[in-house]
Design brief:
The complex is a heterodimer of chains A (about 90) and B (about 575).
Chain A lengths: L5 H13 L25 H15 L7 H7 L3 H11 L3
Helix pairs in contact in A: 1-2, 1-4
Chain B lengths: L7 H4 L6 E4 L5 E2 H16 L5 E5 L3 H13 L3 E4 L5 H9 L3 E4 L2 H6 L6 E3 L18 E8 L5 E7 H15 L7 E4 L6 H14 L3 E2 L6 H7 L4 E5 L1 H10 L7 E6 L6 H11 L4 E6 L3 E7 L8 E3 L4 E4 L4 E5 L11 E10 L2 E7 L3 E4 L2 E4 H9 L4 E11 L2 E10 L1 H10 L1 H13 L10 E4 L13 H6 L13 E8 L2 E7 L19 H16 L5 E9 L8 E9 L2 E8 L2 E10 L1
Parallel strand pairs in B: 1-10, 3-4, 3-5, 4-7, 5-6, 9-11, 11-12, 12-13, 23-24
Antiparallel strand pairs in B: 1-2, 7-8, 13-14, 14-15, 15-19, 16-17, 17-18, 18-19, 20-21, 22-23, 25-26, 26-28, 27-30, 28-29, 29-30
The chains are: A mainly alpha (about 90), B alpha/beta (about 575).
Chain lengths: ~90, ~575
């Protein structure tokens, strides 16, 4: 059993590495802050890339369901929650 | 009236006719013939077709090119004189013509190296040259950063010289030609060497770097062959005022409308801008007075059309690649009566996530923000996708904001500003705030140089000044530089009043001396060292380093005022 916060921390690292974000260290991403536009400033290309790395790392498949994805990608916490529920056992 | 280069030596000129001035002093036609004959004789003892030519002295350049042509050899012109470049070019050539044989040793040339100016010998019974003979190979950096070889036949140059004299000869009839543009590139080679040589106008053997030197060299009617970046500096420095100029030429990069207007206000001369490329030679020209967007007129003999992609295509007697074919210039074009207007470079229209983006348009919009003085955008792969990356020269207000808010917040503010005009996926993903854009000495801003700002080294400490322009001649190297405001050496010197420490200035002098001679000087002692005025972040300064008699003399000046000077004694 992983510590509950580990996935959150790992996802922050994935975001910074996969998206080649500059000037931000993973721990500086707030777990509950919005990822897109007004928050971290990510965009639709980033969402696609994130979906790919999440699948690679956790075996979770993110479907093309805009409404649902808006919730999943809302914050690091939501992403982590989605991973916990759907990751390959 | 021009004499074609192919028959120049056979036709000849009066013995005392002035050919060149400055550099090693005045040169007459008798000197010229004697020097060409001497180099021809030297070449007779050496086999091989392709000869690397890199010369500081433009008179020596004329001698070398005519002698190589007389002996049916080809001059290979490297794009710059960096020791590594010269060494690489020598590897694939049969020999080299340099100012001195020592230069060949300094770059480790393994081919025969001859000095351009040999002891003059009596002239030969010259014959006409074959107009279809290959004369020069230029090398230009393509958009990908690789050098591209462009061969010119003698007739390409003769045809273009004839056209230049037909159009502009009247303006510079009795003028001496003074140049700040290097003859190693096609523009300089034509405008400051071949054309004056063919027209019988005396030309400067030296390449001037500063407006003050141009002013000193401008005696009597003077035609100035310059580049946009140099004209801009001279206009700001006010050194062109009341010079006896009869014509000012600019090529190699786009001339800003402001600079054109400033030069006109200072000199009363409308700059003759020439648009072309190494491949095509000159394509169009214009003189702007008032109308910043005045169309380009097509050079006589040249044809232009809009390609199916909306890009400018050129058919020209000066085109070297496949004569008679149409050559795509890579610029968007709008054809107008008698000429054309240029749009953005085609390679500057990109697609990000299948959305079209004009980089020049975004650069313009970025510059609307009052924190931005200049901006350059490139597209780079970040993560899995291509993204826009922005290099920004902050304005005065931007610099204050950078200090107060930091890079992250300023980037975000500029991104938000752009979000008012562009889809979010098009917004720059990486930002660099720099003191000056990485322009070449010709004023070009290569995408590869901008891209390098985003490379892995971007975060390594900044140790060197930004070199905006450079010229070398007769053991002298002169550089116009800017002090980077993020110079690592400011750490501790001093927080409230950052200055470039004397030891750092000396380091820069040593680096310039290394660039001059190809090897790091071994300094045994320092004499007469004076630090008169502080050098501070963002300062534009000039550095002159002269290597003579076992010593390196240097002076660092700003607007003519000496900041520091001294001598390094070599061991």
């Amino acid at each position: 059993m992983e510590a509950p916060d580990t996935i959150e921390a790992d996802i922050k690292t994935l975001i910074v590495d996969a998206l080649a974000l500059e000037d931000i260290e993973p721990p500086a991403i707030e777990t509950d802050a919005p990822l897109f536009v007004e928050g971290l400033g990510l965009d639709s290309i980033d969402a696609l890339e994130l979906a790919v790395v999440l699948e690679e790392n956790y075996g979770v498949k993110i479907d093309d369901d805009p409404e649902r994805n808006q919730v999943i990608f809302a914050s690091v916490r939501n992403l982590a929650e989605f991973v916990r529920q759907n990751r390959a056992k | 009236m021009v004499t074609s280069l192919r028959s120049l030596l056979r036709v000849g000129r009066p013995a005392q006719h002035p050919v060149a001035f400055a550099g090693a002093g005045g040169r007459t036609w008798r000197d010229f013939e004697g020097h060409v004959a001497a180099l021809c004789r030297r070449l007779d003892s050496l086999a091989g077709e392709r000869w690397v030519v890199f010369l500081e002295d433009s008179y020596a350049f004329a001698v070398a090119l005519l002698a190589l042509a007389q002996r049916g050899r080809v001059a290979v012109l490297p794009p710059n004189g960096q020791p590594g470049t010269l060494s690489r070019f020598c590897e694939s050539a049969d020999g080299a013509v340099f100012d001195t044989v020592e230069r060949g040793a300094a770059v480790g040339a393994t081919v025969p190296v001859v000095a351009a100016l040999q002891q003059p010998v009596p002239a030969e019974d010259w014959s006409d040259l074959d107009p279809d003979a290959s004369l020069i190979e230029f090398f230009t950096s393509g958009t990908t950063g690789d050098s591209k070889r462009i061969a010119k036949r003698l007739r390409h140059l003769d045809d273009e010289v004839a056209v230049l004299d037909e159009l502009f000869g009247g303006d510079c009839a009795a003028a001496r030609v003074v140049a700040t543009a290097s003859h190693q590139h096609i523009y300089g080679s034509l405008f400051r060497v071949f054309w004056p040589l063919a027209a019988g106008r005396s030309f400067s053997a030296r390449t001037y770097l500063h407006g003050t030197e141009v002013a000193a060299a401008a005696e009597g009617a003077t035609a100035l062959v310059s580049t946009p970046v140099q004209l801009k500096a001279m206009a700001i420095g006010d050194t062109l005022r009341e010079l006896p100029l009869s014509a000012v030429f600019s090529s190699g990069a786009p001339l800003e409308g402001e600079t054109a207007a400033a030069v006109f206000n200072l000199t009363g001369i409308a700059v003759t801008e020439v648009f072309g490329s190494t491949e095509t030679g000159g394509v169009g020209w214009r003189r702007r007075q008032g109308d910043v967007d005045a169309p380009w007129q097509v050079l006589p003999g040249v044809q232009v059309r809009a390609g199916t992609d909306g890009g400018l295509e050129v058919s020209s007697p000066f085109v070297s690649a496949a004569d008679g074919d149409w050559f795509a210039m890579g610029d968007r074009v709008e054809l107008v009566a008698g000429g054309f207007r240029l749009g953005a470079r085609m390679d500057r229209i990109v697609k990000i996530a299948s959305k079209r983006l004009s980089l020049p348009e975004m650069e313009r919009d970025l510059c609307l923000h009052d924190h931005v003085a200049e901006a350059a955008l490139v597209v780079e792969r970040r993560g899995m996708e291509e993204r826009v990356c922005a290099a920004v020269v902050p304005s005065q207000a931007g610099r204050v904001a950078l200090d107060e808010l930091g890079k992250v917040e300023l980037s975000r503010a500029l991104g938000d500003h752009l979000a008012g005009f562009f889809d979010r996926v098009l917004l720059p993903r990486a930002w660099r705030f720099v003191d000056a854009l990485p322009r070449s000495a010709q004023g070009k801003l290569p995408a590869s140089a901008v891209r390098a700002l985003f490379g892995a080294q971007a975060d390594s400490p900044v140790l060197e000044p930004i070199v905006e322009a450079e010229s070398t001649s007769d053991g002298v190297i002169e550089r116009r530089c800017v002090v980077p405001s993020d110079l690592a050496y400011f750490e501790g010197h001093f927080d409230s009043f950052p200055i470039v420490a004397g030891v750092v200035q000396l380091r820069w002098v040593v680096e310039a001396a290394r660039a001059l001679s190809g090897e790091a000087p071994r300094v045994a002692a320092i004499e007469g060292l004076k630090f008169k005025q502080p050098l501070t972040p963002g300062d534009r300064f000039e550095m002159r380093v002269e290597h003579a008699g076992g010593k390196i003399r240097f002076a660092i000046t700003r607007d003519g005022e000496t900041l520091s000077c001294g001598r390094l004694v070599l061991g």
